[in-house]
Amino acid sequence: MSAGSEDGLAATLDAVGTVAIVLGVLLTLVASVGLLSLPDVLSRMHAATKPQTVGLVLVVIGGALHLRTSVDVWMLVLVGAFQLVTAPVTAHVVGRLAHRGDGVRRDLLHVDELRDSADDVDPGPDDPEPDTTAHPSDVPGGRQEGS
Amino acid sequence: MTGLPALLDGVLVVSLVLLGLSAILVVVRLLRGPTGLDRLVALDVLVAEFLCGLVVYAALTGNSALVPVVVAISLVGFLGSTTVARFVRRGTDR
What we know:
The complex is a heterodimer.
Chain A: H1 2-37, H2 41-67, H3 70-100, H4 142-146
Helix pairs in contact in A: 1-2, 2-3
Chain B: H1 3-32, H2 36-61, H3 67-87
Helix pairs in contact in B: 1-2, 2-3
Protein name (chain B): Monovalent cation/H+ antiporter complex subunit F
Pfam family, one (chain B): MrpF_PhaF
InterPro entries (chain B): MrpF/PhaF-like (IPR007208)
């Protein structure tokens, strides 16, 4: 009796895990189509965050339900949590850079909250201050290409 | 009794194939992308899909030897994409 219920539990966990994996994979497929067909960097990022967070978390849940040993489950939980922490960091950096460059179709935006802050006077957190005293040697890359 | 596990394995194989298909679409964007940021986003998605593929393969075979590989690739993928984002800093949109 107990062996039968064990088998039933294993089959149920496998089935639920497979359903989660299939959902994550379908989300990844849709996001890839969106990444190929959307017009600019920001909307491609909108598509790209699906496999990075939700798709990967669903697949990781499915894999943990399939593997079912303690070490593997905790490692997969670590993967999911780390991806949830790091994906917004990369998205923030990429979005800010896209707004600085020409990665944004301005005609598709309804609200542009960074419009009034000129991109040149808004340095990144690791950028030296673009001070008024001219140090053209301090910024080697961008200024030369801009001029 | 053999019906359900065989079905689940078949579904996992199909989802691996779908992951490969979506990776091909992402590679098209990676090769075509007009700016470096497009390529960066596509590379992030490619890493995420590779992680998904490794997890699905581990679930399919029941072999948990690939799980530390998944952890390592998620760490290194974040470092790589952030470093590339630092190098496409300004003025170098292409």
